[in-house]
Specification:
With 369 residues, the protein is α+β, with helices and mostly antiparallel strands. It has six helices and 17 strands.
C-alpha cells in the first residue's frame, strides 16, 4: 500500500524493517510505501524518527546519528543493478533530512532486505546483489549467504564496534572515485592549507578531509567523549569544514553532513594509521565504511598528509590497509594501479567485510496531521 493515503484513524501505519547494517542501525522501507514527493517523505521520516529532539523519545531513532538513518530500496530499472538504494540521514536535534552522502554501513543491510522483501530471488549458497547507490550514482555488489534460498544471519564474522558474530557480507565497491565531488581530489591537489592547517580533501566514495591530530595538539588517542567535550577543537574543525566544502565542489555545507572530518595519527594498535572522525558534529565511535575507503586511498597516494605521516610507499596491485578507530580497526582491501602519480592513479576494486541483522519488521506508526 502506498503511503500517499488518508488514514481513518489518528495514526498511519507504514511497513518498515529495522536492521543493523555494519556499525549503524536504521529504518528500511520499500520506496512504494513512502510518499513520492521528497518534502512529504522527509516530513514523514522526521515524525517516525522523533526528530527534532535530542532523545528522539517520540520516535524510533536512537538519539545518535549512527542510529538515525534510513534506507529506501526499490527494484532497479538499470541493466547493471538489481536494486536502487537511497540513503537518508535524519538529523537528531534538527528538522533536517539529508541525501548528500552514501552510507556504507546501512548498505550492508540492503541485500538482505531486498531478498526478504522478494525484490530479487535468492540463489544457493549465496546471492550477489547488485546495488545502485542513488545518492552518488555509484554501484556496489554485496554477497549475501543464502544457503537454503533464505537469508542467513548467523555466522562467525566479527566486526569491531558490534558485539558477537554474524554471517559475513562481502561488499565490492565499483567506480566510486569522485562520486560526490566529481574527482578523487576535488581541489585538484593532494594537499591544501585551510586556515593554516595542512589537509587532504579526498572523495573515494565519501568526501573526507584528513587532518593531522598533532596540528591540534592531540595525540590521536583521545576518546570520542573527550573530543566532543573540546568545544574549541570542534569550533576550529567546523570552520575548516565550511571552507573545505567550498573547495570540494560541495558549496555551502553548513547544513550538510559532508564532508567528514578525520583526524589522523600514527597507529596505536598494530594498524597502518589511527583515526578519529567527526561525522560531522559528533565523533564516530568507529569510522564509516566509505569514509574508511577514502582514508585508505589517501594512505596509498604520495603527497597526501596521510602519506607524509606514514612515510610508506605501496606497490601497485592488491593491498590491505588497516585503519584503526576508537573501537577497533577496519580492513580495506584495494586493487590499485598508478599509485606513484595522481594523474594515473586508479582504484580498480575496494572491498570490505560487513555484517547485518534483521532486528524487527512490521509497521511504524506516525500521527496523521
Amino acid at each position: 500500500m502506498h503511503a500517499d493515503f488518508q488514514a481513518d484513524s489518528d495514526q498511519q501505519a507504514i511497513p518498515c524493517s529495522i536492521m543493523r547494517g555494519g556499525t549503524s542501525k536504521g529504518l528500511y522501507f520499500l520506496a512504494e510505501d513512502l510518499p513520492t514527493a521528497p518534502a512529504l517523505r522527509d516530513q514523514l521520516l522526521l515524525k517516525l524518527m522523533g526528530s527534532p529532539d535530542e532523545r528522539q523519545i517520540d520516535g524510533l531513532g536512537g538519539a545518535h546519528p549512527l542510529t538515525s538513518k534510513v534506507a529506501i530500496v526499490s527494484r532497479s530499472g538499470r541493466e547493471d543493478a538489481d536494486v536502487d538504494y537511497l540513503f537518508l540521514q535524519v538529523v537528531v536535534d534538527k528538522a533536517e533530512v539529508s541525501d548528500a552522502q552514501n552510507c556504507g554501513n546501512l548498505l550492508a543491510g540492503v541485500g538482505p532486505f531486498a531478498i526478504e522483501q522478494q525484490l530479487i530471488t535468492a540463489s544457493v549458497p549465496y546471492t550477489d546483489v547488485r546495488i545502485h547507490m542513488v545518492n552518488t550514482g555509484a554501484n556496489a555488489v554485496a554477497r549475501i549467504q543464502t544457503p537454503q534460498g533464505r537469508v542467513n544471519y548467523q555466522g562467525d564474522a566479527a566486526i569491531d564496534g558490534v558485539p558477537g558474530t554474524a554471517a559475513p557480507i562481502l561488499i565490492d565497491f565499483l567506480d566510486i572515485a569522485g562520486s560526490s565531488c566529481g574527482r578523487l581530489f576535488p581541489t585538484g591537489n593532494s594537499q591544501d592549507v585551510i586556515l593554516e592547517k595542512s589537509v587532504t580533501c579526498i572523495d573515494n566514495g565519501m568526501p573526507v578531509v584528513l587532518l593531522l591530530a598533532s596540528d591540534f595538539g592531540l595525540s590521536g588517542a583521545e576518546t570520542p567523549t573527550e573530543l566532543e567535550a573540546n568545544q574549541a577543537l570542534k569550533t576550529q574543525i567546523e570552520a575548516i569544514r565550511l571552507e573545505a566544502g567550498k573547495l570540494m565542489n560541495l558549496g555551502d555545507v553548513t547544513k550538510k553532513t559532508v564532508p567528514k572530518m578525520t583526524l589522523i595519527s600514527k597507529p596505536l594498535n598494530g594498524g597502518l594509521l589511527n583515526t578519529r572522525s567527526f561525522i560531522p558534529h559528533r565523533v564516530h565511535e568507529a569510522i564509516g565504511v566509505l569514509g574508511s575507503v577514502s582514508v585508505a586511498t589517501a594512505c596509498v597516494l604520495k603527497g597526501t598528509v596521510t602519506h607524509d605521516l606514514l612515510q610508506q610507499n605501496f606497490a601497485d596491485g592488491s593491498i590491505e590497509i588497516v585503519v584503526e578507530h576508537p573501537t577497533g580497526q577496519f580492513n580495506v582491501e584495494m586493487e590499485v594501479s598508478g599509485s606513484a602519480h595522481i594523474e594515473s592513479f586508479q582504484v580498480h576494486r575496494a572491498a570490505l567485510l560487513r555484517t547485518a541483522r534483521l532486528l524487527m519488521r512490521g509497521e511504524a506508526m506516525t500521527s496523521v496531521s
